[in-house]
Amino acid sequence: MFICRLCNSAGEAPVFYAVEDFFLGTAFREDYVRCTACGLLQARRVLHDHSPLYDSYELHEPRSRLVGLARRIVMRRAYDVVGPVAPNSRLLDYGCGDGRYLATMRARGWRVAGIEMTTDYARELANRLGAEVRAVDDDFTDWSCAFDRLTMNMVLEHLEEPRAHVERAFSLLVPGGVFYAIIPNVEGTEARLFGPRWHDLDPPRHRTFLTRAHLETLLVESGFEAPFFDTVSIGASFSGSLLRYISPRYDRRLLAALLPLGELWSAIVRDSALRVWARRPR
Fold first, then answer.
1. Would residue 45 count as lying in a domain?
2. Domain total in the chain
3. Is residue 34 part of a domain?
4. What's the pTM?
5. Domain of 239?
6. Which of 97, 191, 241, 255 has its CA 20 to 30 A from that of 261?
7. Distance between the two ends of the chain, CA-based, in angstroms?
């Protein structure tokens, strides 16, 4: 039985059926529905173990310096790269991927920590970075009110229960601490243009697609002060959508060849991703 992840309603309207895992080419197929009460687009089934979705996940693998540089260039609009507010300021990256963002922020003066989806990968990344990284289902009692900044860089869409994670983010920030997130913009031009071939649909890893209205309500209900939003476009996203449209399978070389078109798109159409900043009241 379908239950909306955001409002707990049981009403659903089908949107996309049996969408293939284009990025990793696994046997997973995902149906996406829209809640008839709150409008949230989401995967119909709820998964309790996400670890199989990330086997051989390219974005978790160490990269060469050249590939790392190329990724930083195409993803430069996604990350909120700021210096610490005071000596010994702490930053938590919630869903820290390959850890490059944590390394960048540590180089800027932050004391950093991270959260990842599975225990094994969190341990591997902690050893690689020399920083504390915990699994998402760990106990975070000792991290209560511990961080000056918390970032979720393309993370909320991976989570089955966005409300629970936003509420946790609030609890981990110090009073006055800043929350930052960027998510795929399901209301953007790219999502409307490509439909089930939209790169950021990314089944089965992407589970929910919050709109600005959803996210604003969720943040305020979780205790944050009035959020500030803007939109940007990321060249790699548009390039991935084009690749999905013209190719039957993922091809890294063809994706690289399409990146100039993605960069041109991102300079003209600036709404493929939604960014938000919010503050925990002092």
1. no
2. 1
3. no
4. 0.91
5. 53-279
6. 97
7. 41
The C-alpha R_g of the chain, in whole angstroms, comes to 18
Q: Show pLDDT as tens, one digit a residue, over the chain (282 residues).
A: 899 999 999 999 999 999 999 998 889 999 999 999 999 999 999 998 887 887 766 665 665 565 555 555 656 667 888 999 899 999 999 999 889 999 999 999 999 999 998 888 999 999 999 999 999 999 999 999 999 999 999 999 999 999 999 999 999 999 999 999 999 999 999 999 999 999 999 999 999 999 999 999 999 999 999 899 999 999 899 999 999 999 989 998 999 999 999 999 999 999 999 999 999 999
Letter for the amino acid at 279? R
One-letter amino acid identity for 42?
Q
Token duo for residue 136: 């998402």
Domain at 245, CATH number: 3.40.50.150
Distance, CA of 236 to CA of 85 (rounded, Å): 31
Q: Could you tell me the strand order of the sheet in which 147-153 lies?
A: 132-135, 111-116, 90-94, 147-153, 173-184, 273-279, 228-232
